[in-house]
């Protein structure tokens, strides 16, 4: 599988687009797109989705989903990845099969880290594997401890932060699927 930066650049050149033209199609700056193509910056999922749409491919084009005949995914063999401007480490824990509706991740959240406030279609569930985590859903505060679960419609404003001194690790299950 090509790396995401190489794949973006190859597709852009294949479609005979300049960085400036891709910039106008995505509303992302030319310098940011150039940094992505050089591997100096990692795009957030939302930015990657804009790039995929502008290049006329599905976002899944940039990923090689795990294949398993017995549908088991091992954390030990999952490839860690990070998204732009985030100190969190994510592990995709979803099988790849037709009509799948769940997207599963294990996310390691370092002390002091938080994700961005968002809302989108679907649902989210967080199971706290270890540590402590503060989750904000519609401005209501939930303090999660190990083995706690929170499940909510993701069309309402939500985000989380790790206010503890230890890494928090969650299983995040979200719909709709991203990859």
Automatic annotation (TrEMBL):
GO cellular component, one term: cytosol
The UniProt record lists the keyword DNA repair: no
Keywords for this protein: DNA-binding
Lineage top rank: taxon: Bacteria
Domain called HTH cro/C1-type: residue spans: 8-62
GO molecular function list: DNA binding; DNA-binding transcription factor activity
Keyword DNA-binding among UniProt keywords: yes
Full protein name: XRE family transcriptional regulator
């Amino acid at each position: 599988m090509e790396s995401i930066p190489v794949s973006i650049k190859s597709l852009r050149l294949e479609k005979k687009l300049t960085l400036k033209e891709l910039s106008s199609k995505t509303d992302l700056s030319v310098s940011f797109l150039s940094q992505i193509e050089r591997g100096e910056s990692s795009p957030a999922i939302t930015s990657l989705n804009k790039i995929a749409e502008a290049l006329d491919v599905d976002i899944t084009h940039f990923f090689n989903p795990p294949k398993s005949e017995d549908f088991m995914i091992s954390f030990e063999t999952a490839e860690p990845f990070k998204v732009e401007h985030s100190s969190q480490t994510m592990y995709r824990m979803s099988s790849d099969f037709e009509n799948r509706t769940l997207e599963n991740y294990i996310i390691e959240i370092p002390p002091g880290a938080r994700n961005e406030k968002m809302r989108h279609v679907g649902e989210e569930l967080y199971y706290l594997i270890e540590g402590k985590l503060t989750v904000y859903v519609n401005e209501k505060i939930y303090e999660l401890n190990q083995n706690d679960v929170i499940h909510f419609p993701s069309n309402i404003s939500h985000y989380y932060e790790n206010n503890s001194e230890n890494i928090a690790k969650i299983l995040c299950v979200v719909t709709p699927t991203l990859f």
